[in-house]
C-alpha cells in the first residue's frame, strides 16, 4: 500500500494550492479527486478579482494551477475516495478509493460543495432539458433565447452577464428586494440592461419535452405569475460535501460546514480542511490561501 506524508482529498483551487505548497516543502503528497481537477471552479465564466489577471475564466486558471501542482505532487483525477479510517500506526490514515488504497500521516479535506437545488416541481424532470446549474457548460445552447437566472449573489450575477454576452435574453429572479452581490456586479447588470424581478421565488417549472415557463410567487403578496422562458439557470448557493469528515468525527457547524482554526486544523489531530467545505468566505483566493496554510500546518505537525 503506497504511503504518503499528506493526502489531499479534492483538487479544486484550494487542493491544488495545498499540493503545490506540500511538494515544495519536500513532503510526499497525493491529491485525489473524483472528477477532473477544478471542481466548481471550472464553471466560473470570468473572474475580475483574482490578483494578477484582469479577466480570466475558471477553467483557464485551473489548467495553469494544475500544471504547477503536478510538478510538486501526484494527482489522481476521476478516482473517488469512498472511505477514510484512522489507525494507530505512523501512517495513521487509510484512504480507500474506487481504484486503490493508500496510507497517510495527514489528511487535508478539500472536498468542496455542490449546487443547491430549488427543490420545486419540475426541477428534476427538466434537468438537462432547460434546467441548468452551469452557465459555462450550457449557455451556448441558449443564444437568442429567453432564460431566467435564479439567485442574487456574485455567482448568479456573473453568470447572468456571461449569458447576456452569449446573446441570451436574461431575466434575474431573486427572492429578496436587493441583491447580495458586490456593487460593481450590480452596476454591470444595470449597464447591460438585464431585466430583474425582485421579491420573487420559483414555485414550479413547467413544459412538455423542454422547459416552457415558470411559476413565480411574489414574496410580499403571495400572488402567482406564469412567465414564459426557454430555460432556467439556478445559482442559489452550495451544499458542503462532508461525508468523509463525518467518517472521521470532524466537527461541523449548524450549517453543515467544517469548523477549523486559524491553521486550518479540525478537532481531529492531523486532519485539516480548506475551501468551500469549511466555515468562512466562499472565494477562490480564500481557498488558495487556506490550502497554503493547511499544507504548511501539516508539514510542521509531522516534523
Can you tell me about this structure?
The mean pLDDT is 94. With 303 residues, this protein is α/β, with parallel strands linked by helices. It has two domains: 2-114 and 238-301, 3-Layer(bba) Sandwich (FAD/NAD(P)-binding domain), CATH 3.50.50; 117-234, FAD/NAD(P)-binding domain, CATH 3.50.50.60. Helix 1 runs parallel beside helix 2, helix 1 (13-24) packs parallel to helix 7 (284-301) and helix 4 (154-165) packs parallel to helix 5 (183-192). It has helices at 13-24, 58-69, 135-138, 154-165, 183-192, 243-247, 284-301, and strands at residues 2-9, 29-32, 74-76, 81-86, 93-97, 101-109, 113-115, 131-132, 146-150, 169-174, 195-198, 200-207, 211-218, 224-228, 231-234, 238-240, 271-273. Helices cover 24% and strands 28% of the residues.
Tell me the radius of gyration: 21 Å
Shape: elongated
The CATH homology group name of the largest domain: FAD/NAD(P)-binding domain
Structural class, from secondary structure content? alpha/beta
Main sheet: strands, sense, barrel: 7 strands, mixed
Percent of residues in helices comes to 10-25%
Number of domains: 2
Short account of what is shown:
By secondary structure, this protein is α/β, with parallel strands linked by helices. It has helices spanning 13-24, 58-69, 135-138, 154-165, 183-192, 243-247, 284-301; strands at residues 2-9, 29-32, 74-76, 81-86, 93-97, 101-109, 113-115, 131-132, 146-150, 169-174, 195-198, 200-207, 211-218, 224-228, 231-234, 238-240, 271-273. It is built from 7 helices and 17 strands.
Amino acid at each position: 500500500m503506497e504511503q504518503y506524508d499528506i493526502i489531499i482529498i479534492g483538487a479544486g483551487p484550494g487542493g491544488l494550492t495545498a499540493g503545490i505548497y506540500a511538494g515544495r516543502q519536500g513532503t510526499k503528497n497525493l491529491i485525489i479527486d473524483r472528477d477532473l481537477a477544478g471542481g466548481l471552479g471550472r464553471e466560473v465564466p470570468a473572474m475580475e478579482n483574482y490578483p494578477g489577471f484582469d479577466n480570466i475564466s475558471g477553467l483557464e486558471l485551473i489548467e495553469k494551477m494544475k500544471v504547477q501542482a503536478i510538478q510538486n505532487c501526484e494527482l489522481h483525477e476521476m478516482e473517488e475516495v469512498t472511505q477514510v479510517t484512522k489507525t494507530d500506526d505512523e501512517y495513521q490514515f487509510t484512504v480507500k478509493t474506487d481504484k486503490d488504497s493508500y496510507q497517510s500521516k495527514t489528511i487535508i479535506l478539500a472536498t468542496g460543495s455542490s449546487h443547491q437545488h430549488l427543490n420545486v416541481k419540475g426541477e428534476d424532470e427538466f434537468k438537462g432539458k432547460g434546467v441548468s446549474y452551469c452557465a459555462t457548460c450550457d449557455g451556448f445552447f441558449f443564444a437568442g433565447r429567453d432564460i431566467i437566472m435564479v439567485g442574487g449573489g456574485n455567482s448568479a450575477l456573473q453568470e447572468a452577464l456571461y449569458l447576456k454576452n452569449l446573446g441570451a435574453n436574461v431575466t434575474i429572479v431573486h427572492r429578496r428586494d436587493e441583491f447580495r452581490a458586490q456593487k460593481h456586479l450590480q452596476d454591470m447588470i444595470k449597464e447591460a440592461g438585464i431585466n430583474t424581478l425582485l421579491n420573487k421565488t420559483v414555485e414550479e417549472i413547467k413544459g412538455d419535452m423542454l422547459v416552457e415557463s415558470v411559476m413565480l410567487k411574489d414574496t410580499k403578496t403571495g400572488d402567482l405569475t406564469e412567465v414564459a422562458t426557454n430555460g432556467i439557470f439556478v445559482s442559489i448557493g452550495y451544499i458542503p460535501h462532508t461525508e468523509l469528515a463525518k467518517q472521521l468525527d470532524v466537527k461541523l457547524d449548524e450549517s453543515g460546514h467544517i469548523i477549523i482554526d486559524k491553521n486550518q486544523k479540525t478537532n481531529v489531530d492531523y486532519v485539516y480542511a480548506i475551501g468551500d467545505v469549511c466555515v468562512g468566505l466562499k472565494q477562490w483566493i480564500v481557498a488558495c490561501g487556506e490550502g497554503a496554510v493547511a499544507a504548511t500546518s501539516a508539514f510542521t505537525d509531522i516534523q
